C-alpha cells in the first residue's frame, strides 16, 4: 500500500504519540520560561511518574486476570493518571529542592545547574533500575482495546482515543491555567521579568516551585499514558525526553502553545518518516529535526517566551 493509502492511519498514530511528546515538552518549556534553564532531569520525572501510575493501576486490577470494562476501566485509568501525576509532581518538587534551590541561593553559574541536573538524572535512573529491575515492566490491559470508529478509513482504537483525549485535556487545562488565572499571571510575570515581578509583590520562590510541580504533574500523567502503550523501564525517560525537548525547541522553547504545536508536529513527522523510510529511522528523524531547527530557526516556529505567550 502506498503512502497516500496509509496517510490517515499514520496521522492518527502520529497525533497520539505527538500529544505525549507535547505533554512532556511542557515541563521543559515552563521551567525554561521561568528560570531560563533546561531541566535535563525532567525525563526521569516522566519515568518515575510512569512507574507510580503503573503500580497503582496494577494493584487494583482483578486478581483473576480478567480485563475490566465500563466504570471499572475508567476508574483504573483515573487512578493510574492520578498516581502517576502525584509521583511526577513529588519527584519534580524534590528535584527543585535538592538540585536547584541550593544553587539559586548561592547564585551559582548556569553550568552548575546543568551538572546538578545530569547528576540528579543519573541518580534517579540507577535508583529506578535497582528498585524496579532492569527489564521492561508491562502494564496489563485496563480496558478492551478495539476499534471505536474510523476516520477517513483510519482505525481509531480505544487506547488511541483515551491517550489523545487525556493528553489534549491536560494541554488545554495548562493553557487556561497560564493564560487565565492569577497563578498564570504570576508565572508569566516571573518569566518576563523576575526582578520587576518581585517589586509587584509576586512570590518568585513560590512560582518556581509551582512551575516545577505543574511540569512534574503533567510529565507523571504522561508517563502513565506512555506506559499504557510502550511499557515502562528504568531507562525509558531518555528517548521520549530528548524528543520532547526537540518538540519544545521546534515550537519555541518557553512558549506553552509552541510546545503543544511542536509535539504534535514531531509526532506526525516521525510517523510519516518511519513509513517512507524505515521504522528504525524514527529516532534519527526526530534528532535530525532538532539539528535542523537549531540551524535554521533556533527561536522555534512561534518563538515567543512564556512571559509573552498566551
Explain what you see.
The chain is mainly alpha-helical and about 300 residues long. It has one domain (about 5-310): ABC transporter involved in vitamin B12 uptake, BtuC (Orthogonal Bundle), CATH 1.10.3470. It contains eleven helices and two strands, in the order H-H-H-H-E-E-H-H-H-H-H-H-H. It has helices at about 5-35, 40-60, 70-105, 110-130, 160-180, 180-190, 195-200, 205-230, 240-250, 255-275, 280-295; strands at about 145-150, 155. A two-stranded antiparallel ribbon has the order 1-2. Strand 1 and strand 2 form a beta hairpin. Helix 1 (about 5-35) packs parallel to helix 5, helix 1 (about 5-35) packs across helix 9 and helix 5 packs across helix 6 (about 180-190). The radius of gyration is 19 Å and the shape is globular. The protein starts with a helix and ends in a 14-residue tail after the last helix.
In the CATH hierarchy, the architecture is: Orthogonal Bundle
Determine the structural class based on helices, strands and strand pairing.
mainly alpha
Q: Rg to the nearest angstrom? A: 19 Å
Q: How would you sum up the major sheet?
A: 2 strands, antiparallel
Salient structural properties:
single chain; globular; amino-acid transport; mainly alpha; L-isoleucine transmembrane transporter activity; L-phenylalanine transmembrane transporter activity; 11 helices; High-affinity branched-chain amino acid transport system permease protein BraD; ABC transporter involved in vitamin B12 uptake, BtuC
Amino acid at each position: 500500500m502506498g503512502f497516500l493509502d496509509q496517510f490517515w492511519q499514520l496521522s492518527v498514530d502520529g497525533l497520539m504519540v505527538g500529544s505525549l511528546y507535547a505533554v512532556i515538552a511542557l515541563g521543559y518549556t515552563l521551567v525554561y520560561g521561568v528560570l531560563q534553564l533546561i531541566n535535563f532531569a525532567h525525563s526521569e520525572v516522566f519515568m518515575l511518574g510512569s512507574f507510580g501510575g503503573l503500580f497503582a493501576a496494577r494493584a487494583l486490577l482483578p486478581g483473576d486476570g480478567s480485563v475490566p470494562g465500563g466504570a471499572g476501566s475508567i476508574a483504573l485509568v483515573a487512578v493510574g493518571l492520578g498516581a502517576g501525576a502525584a509521583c511526577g509532581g513529588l519527584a519534580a518538587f524534590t528535584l527543585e529542592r535538592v538540585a536547584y534551590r541550593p544553587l539559586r541561593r548561592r547564585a551559582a553559574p548556569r553550568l552548575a545547574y546543568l551538572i546538578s541536573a545530569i547528576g540528579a538524572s543519573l541518580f534517579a535512573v540507577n535508583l529506578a533500575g535497582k528498585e524496579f529491575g532492569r527489564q521492561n515492566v508491562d502494564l496489563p490491559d485496563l480496558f478492551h482495546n478495539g476499534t471505536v470508529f474510523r476516520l477517513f478509513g483510519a482505525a481509531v482504537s480505544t487506547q488511541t482515543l483515551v491517550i489523545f483525549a487525556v493528553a489534549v485535556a491536560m494541554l488545554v487545562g495548562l493553557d487556561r491555567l497560564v493564560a487565565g488565572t492569577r497563578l498564570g499571571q504570576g508565572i508569566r510575570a516571573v518569566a518576563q521579568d523576575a526582578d520587576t515581578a518581585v517589586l509587584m509583590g509576586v512570590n518568585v520562590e513560590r512560582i518556581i516551585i509551582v512551575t516545577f510541580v505543574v511540569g512534574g504533574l503533567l510529565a507523571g500523567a504522561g508517563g502513565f499514558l506512555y506506559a499504557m502503550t510502550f511499557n515502562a523501564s528504568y531507562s525509558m525517560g531518555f528517548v521520549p525526553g530528548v524528543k520532547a525537548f526537540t518538540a519544545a525547541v521546534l515550537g519555541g522553547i518557553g512558549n506553552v502553545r509552541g510546545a503543544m504545536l511542536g509535539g504534535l508536529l514531531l509526532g506526525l513527522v516521525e510517523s510519516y518518516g518511519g513509513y517512507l523510510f524505515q521504522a528504525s529511522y524514527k529516532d534519527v528523524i526526530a534528532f535530525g529535526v532538532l539539528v535542523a531547527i537549531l540551524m535554521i530557526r533556533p527561536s522555534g516556529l512561534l518563538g515567543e517566551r512564556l512571559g509573552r505567550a498566551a
